[in-house]
Amino acid sequence: MASRRTRALSVFLRITRKRGMATPERARAAMAEPAGAHTPPSRFRRRHRVTGRLVEGFPCYTVAPRTAPESGKVVIYLHGGSFFREISWWHWRFIDRLVTAGHRVEVPIYPLAPRYTYRAALPYLVAVYRQVIGDVDPGRVVLAGDSAGGTLALLLAQALPATGLPAPARLILLAPCLDMRLCNPEIDGVEAADPWLARPGLLEAGRVWAGGDDLGLPELSPINGPLDRLPETDLFIGTHDILYPDARLFAQHAGARVRFIEEPGAFHVYPLAPVPEARPVVKAVLTTVDAL
Q: Which of 34, 114, 206, 253 has its CA 20 to 30 A from that of 287?
């Protein structure tokens, strides 16, 4: 059973978040709002060494420990936000845990809808990855992301063989969207329990992000992309998440290379939230990176 805090936060999310994506019209209104700032919070900057640069015209931050020695390992972390929301304090909080453990984290600020589509994102992410492995052995690099960022991390991993670039050591995915069409019939049984995500708004955001292309394209829906050359992958997701059915199906298709961890009663990207269920996930992620 979900913890008391998870149940309470689920009620809060249902009131404050789900309504905003309940219809295509509300999703379009949300996408029309300013994306917000992507700069790290001042408190975060005081705790860690943060430097920024432009890659292919888009920002990317490097965050490194200010006092502790660096582990020599790099996590490329891609934030979520339905492909149109900017990085938030939830993401910086998770990144803080990685950096505090001694790891360098690269934070690409990828182009967002509605100004951009998916066509602008992948070349940028490939360029960031190319820079990172230019000075770090790919066997010490992890690709990670939550929600839309998890989708992009997986799409990047799938695209690497065609670029001639080596794969990273590991993929860590927190509740990625794996099929932008959201057509899995099992979603119907989960949607009422999901306190956060609503299919009408997600579909509209996906259509804008796709720029008129078929949502089922492998470049948009990684469940339809190649699975045979993926690195070892950890996928964490709650059962009260409409993305859960596709995540389970993806893990079945991918086989032993994907370690699938589900949390009963947990909502979307629960590892980023201040709930008890998040703690073992954070510990597992840190253990995985430490072991590289």
A: 253
